[in-house]
Design goal:
Blueprint (H helix, E strand, L loop, with lengths): L3 H8 L3 H9 L6 H14 L5 H8 L4 E5 L6 H16 L3 E5 L5 H13 L4 E4 L6 H10 L3 E4 L14 E5 L2 H13 L5 E5 L5 H16 L9 E3 L4 H12 L7 E4 L2 H13 L9 E5 L13 E4 L2 H17 L6 E5 L2 E3 L26
Parallel strand pairs: 1-2, 1-3, 3-4, 4-5, 5-11, 6-7, 6-8, 8-9, 9-10
Antiparallel strand pairs: 10-12
Helix pairs in contact: 1-2, 1-3, 5-12, 6-7, 8-9, 10-11
């Protein structure tokens, strides 16, 4: 079995250089790093991860806690996290907290006990227990998709990476208003999530910019789930004056809304225009093709890894919040013909410093 000494001899470098390449403990010239990697590949060298972790106090593993991994949006985030982790020689331990506050705290403890170097978490709507645990144990953490505030006075430093929500949602509503719609319904997400709050804010901004009044009866919470969104859509369509256009606030709720429209024999966009937050791989396979806001899900995952590695290298960094732009993908479910001119997306208010 090949050893680190064998790798060093084959690459023509010192054992220390091989160690730096494997552990990322010091910058190595690109050509030298490649020579070491080539030697590892040629010799079939397998590092002893357990022994290395005892020396460095690092396991080169990241804990990822994301609910609804079957959701295409979170699946793409997972792909971004995995690619970023592998690029830097890290492995992943993955858990699904099921958006349950008690379970997510238990998941964090489980990952922490597995000695992950840090965690990337999509927090629930009420993550107080999770935050107390992470702060108490000073776990290097990056939150993604949803913003959180640390416990007051805890001194807990963390990072966050999310997509723009407010401006893009306003652009969907504004576009429907430009199409002549005056009663625009919203199937909103789970109360308490920052994404839900920001997208409702964007909905209201879009109405205000179009000179339309806000009517709370036109907002129904689908709780970020297909089944709940189906019920919410039925409630909106049962109003005495139902909406002529509908915006759904995530891809799972889009599926629920489409089921409700099918059950009622309604056609999109002839009977009701539809726009959605979240793109997914089959959105342009529907008839009509869905007009959506596409979030940079893979980039969110990859950026979360980079933020976490920076925090591992410099634990006392101030907390950072990064917002990534979302894109308006203009198709035909809004009632527009094919290949329309893309509307401008209003700039969203930002929370926290950019990184």
């Amino acid at each position: 079995m090949a050893t680190m000494v064998d790798v060093a001899r084959r690459a023509g470098v010192s054992i220390a250089t091989v160690s730096h390449v494997l552990n990322g403990t010091r910058p190595v010239l690109p050509q030298t790093r490649q020579a070491v990697l080539d030697a590892i590949d040629e010799l079939g060298y397998t590092p002893n991860t357990l022994a290395r972790s005892l020396v460095t106090s690092r396991t080169r593993s990241i804990g990822l806690a994301v609910s609804a991994i079957s959701n295409p949006y979170f699946t793409e985030i997972l792909q971004g996290v995995e690619a970023g982790a592998l690029e830097h020689g890290y492995g992943l331990l993955i858990a699904d907290p099921h958006d349950d506050p008690e379970h997510e705290r238990e998941v964090a403890q489980l990952l922490h006990e597995r000695r992950v170097d840090g965690m990337i978490i999509a927090p629930s709507a009420t993550p107080a227990g999770l935050l107390r645990y992470l702060a108490r144990h000073d776990v290097p953490t990056v939150f993604l998709d949803r913003l959180v505030d640390p416990p007051a006075g805890s001194g807990f430093r963390h990072d966050q990476v999310v997509a723009e929500n407010t401006g893009p949602m306003a652009s969907l509503v504004g576009h429907l208003a430009e199409r002549g719609h005056r009663r625009i319904g919203l199937v909103a997400g789970l109360p308490g999530l920052s994404t839900t709050t920001e997208r409702i804010t964007g909905y209201r901004h879009g109405l205000a910019r179009a000179g339309l009044p806000y009517d709370e009866r036109l907002v129904a919470h689908g709780d970020s789930l297909a089944e709940s969104a189906e019920e919410a859509t039925h409630r909106l369509l049962s109003l005495g004056a139902p909406p002529s256009a509908l915006v759904t606030a995530n891809n799972a709720m889009t599926i629920g809304a489409l089921r409700a429209l099918r059950d009622r024999g309604l056609s999109v966009p002839d009977d009701l225009a539809l726009c959605c937050f979240d793109d997914f791989s089959w959105a342009d396979l529907f008839t009509p093709r869905l007009t959506v806001i596409a979030q940079p899900s893979k980039e969110i995952g990859a950026r979360a890894v980079r933020l976490l590695l920076e925090r591992l290298a410099s634990p006392r960094l101030e907390s950072r919040t990064v917002r990534l732009p979302s894109a308006f993908v203009h198709r035909t479910s809004c009632g527009c013909p094919e290949n329309p001119v893309r509307p401008e997306s209003p700039e969203a208010p930002r929370k926290g410093p950019e990184s």
